[in-house]
Amino acid sequence: MTVPFTTLNDGVQIPQLGFGTFKIPPEDTERAVTEALSIGYRHIDTAAIYGNEEGVGKAIAASGLKRDEIFLTTKLWNDMHPRGLARVAISTSLEKLGLDYLDLYLIHWPAPVKYGDSYIEAWDALQEFQAEGLTRSIGVSNFNVEHLDAISGTVPSVNQVELHPTLTQNALRAELAYRGIACEAWSPLGRGADLSDATIIQIAADTERTPAQVIIRWHLQLGHIVIPKSVTPARIAENLDVFNFELTDAQVEAITALDRDARSGSNPALAEF
Ligand SMILES: NC(=O)c1ccc[n+]([C@@H]2O[C@H](COP(=O)([O-])OP(=O)(O)OC[C@H]3O[C@@H](n4cnc5c(N)ncnc54)[C@H](OP(=O)(O)O)[C@@H]3O)[C@@H](O)[C@H]2O)c1
Questions:
Q1: Could you tell which of 19, 56, 140, 229 is best to mutate to test the pocket of ligand 1, judged by most ligand atoms within 8 Å of the CB?
Q2: How many folded domains does the chain comprise?
Q3: The domain containing residue 36 runs over which residues?
């Protein structure tokens, strides 16, 4: 299964479909990531706060793949925004992952309620890390337009945000396209909830695919980078098997019309963590 690449605004190529690892317990992570790598995933998304970077690193080391065959993203947690702490955080992540560079390092949340504008300093730190070769690309996550406006220097390569058929983020997606920032969808299946939508089920029947495949295909056709998570081997395989069919424009539009602003996570401007 060959996953197409998206070229980021810094020229780095990222596999458009990756493997999410949020809520995979540390003891299950090596097995799940090994499963994903063995069937062809080459892009893994983790974060310091997930507590599973060691498991991801063990799976990468055991895979036999060359370092440059794998695209690894991790994220800076909110209490580590100040420059000196951010440097400790990236070193710790690299050590836990057993890597000497990351492919993509993200500010996990702007977290303005608890940490003020510390994310601005974090962005300056990430630019230093990129210049030093500690990470190939740098980006942000959960940034609203006001947070994008507040940072300066390098334009983020990616904004990873909650995005799925019942939360289509139309205004933010248009803004990211305008700014040349790739849009990466977290909880792309709505944490599973969007799979039972009647329209999705109907399109799945019409295309003889599963609801998850229909939703992942919708993301891909809209140009999102997409990182579904599963610990279930059959689902891990199903979610990758999405490159042998296409949705019609009408099907894509019908799915986009399911938007009802249904966030499963926090509004980034209001999050209190
Ligand atoms: N930047 C951020 O703040 C942020 C926040 C949240 C998530 N993320 C990233 O985005 C990734 C994906 O988001 P997510 O994990 O929240 O949600 P998700 O990928 O939308 O959904 C995961 C849920 O859907 C189930 N599932 C997966 N494939 C399925 C299939 N083919 N059929 C039926 N059910 C299926 C999984 O079950 P099983 O695992 O039991 O199979 C799990 O319960 C995360 O893992 C993480 O890497 C980032």
A1: 229
A2: 1
A3: 5-256
Tell me if residue 101 is catalytic.
no
User: Does residue 263 sit within a domain?
Assistant: no
Q: Rounded CA gap, 217 and 204, in Å?
A: 11
Judge whether 46 and 76 are in contact, CB under 8 Å: no
pLDDT digits 0-9 by tens, 240-251: 999 999 999 999
- What distance in Å separates the CA atoms of residue 124 and residue 112, rounded to the nearest whole number? 16
Residue of 35, 230, 238 to test ligand 1 pocket, by largest number of atoms within 8 Å of CB? 230
At 149-181, the pLDDT tens digits run: 999 999 999 999 999 999 999 999 999 999 999
Asked if residue 264 is part of any domain, the answer here is no
pTM confidence score: 0.98
**CATH number of the domain bearing residue 80:** 3.20.20.100
Mean pLDDT rounded to a whole number for the chain: 98
Task: Using alpha carbons, select from 136, 113, 110 the residue that is nearest to residue 123.
Answer: 110
Q: Which of 41, 50, 105, 115 is catalytic?
A: 50
DSSP-derived letter for residue 132 is T
Whether 269 maps to a domain, the answer reads no
Beta bridge partners of 105: 74, 138
Cα of 221 vs centre of ligand 1, distance in Å, is 19
Asked whether residue 272 is domain-assigned, the answer is no
